[in-house]
Amino acid sequence: MPKMKTHRGAAKRFRRTGSGKLRRRRANKNHILEKKSPKRKRQLRGPAEVSSSDERMLRDLGL
Q: Which residue pairs from 44-53 have beta carbons closer than 8 angstroms and sit at least 24 positions apart in sequence?
C-alpha cells in the first residue's frame, strides 16, 4: 500500500515544534482590524498551541 499523502491545506496552517507539539496561527487577525482594540490585536500575536483533542484529527491528516 502506498504512503499516505499529507493534507496540503492543513500543512500550510500548522507547524510542528522541536518537541513535537503542533502550533497554529490565531484567528481574527486578518481584516476589519480598525474596530478591534489594540489590546485584543496584541493578544492575538504569536502562535498558539493546538488543543490535545484536535491533535488526533491532525495526525490523521498526515501532520
A: 47/15, 47/23, 48/23, 48/24, 49/21, 49/22, 49/23, 49/24, 50/14, 50/21, 50/22, 50/23, 50/24
All structural domains of the chain with their residue ranges? 8-60
Write down the architecture of domain 8-60 according to CATH: Irregular (4.10)
pLDDT digit string, tens, across residues 6-61: 999 999 999 999 999 999 999 999 999 999 999 999 999 999 999 999 999 999 99
